TrEMBL record:
Domain of life: Bacteria
Organism encoding this protein: Methylobacterium dankookense
Transmembrane segments: 12-34, 46-68, 74-95, 102-123
Protein name: Uncharacterized protein
Keywords in alphabetical order: Membrane, Transmembrane, Transmembrane helix
Length: 127
């Protein structure tokens, strides 16, 4: 394994961060365009959660890429990132329908991305 990727621990961390970011991306794509979601657009909490999730997702993607570039080979970065994008819809479809749509889904994504950012800072001190 060391011939493929010498830093297996960093590879596992990056896989976790990429998986959370990909799953969060799929949840957030269901929110846009806002004209199709009057249940979220009419509630101030929904708009705040959408904005916060988008900002946290951008920070997680940027931090994960910075962590991956600093600690992994580029081939590992591309392969694991691609696998995360490929299998994230499966993780998304495992969730119950009430968790995917609406305020509950946005709150779960907010907590997941926030926890991942905390772990990323703890593990990689990216920010």
């Amino acid at each position: 394994m060391t011939m493929i990727e010498p830093n297996v621990a960093a590879l596992l961390w990056f896989a976790l961060f990429a998986g959370v970011a990909s799953t969060g991306f799929y949840v957030l794509t269901g929110v846009f365009p806002l004209e199709t979601r009057p249940d979220l657009r009419s509630r101030p909490l929904g708009l705040v959660l959408i904005a916060a999730n988008v900002l946290l997702l951008l920070a997680l993607v940027g931090g994960s890429l910075a962590y991956g570039v600093a600690n992994l080979r580029w081939t590992s970065l591309v392969i694991v990132g691609g696998l995360a994008l490929l299998f994230a819809p499966g993780l998304f479809n495992v969730w119950p329908q009430r968790w995917r749509d609406g305020i509950a889904g946005l709150a779960i994504v907010f907590a997941g991305i926030g926890a991942s950012l905390g772990l990323l800072q703890h593990v990689g001190t990216v920010f």
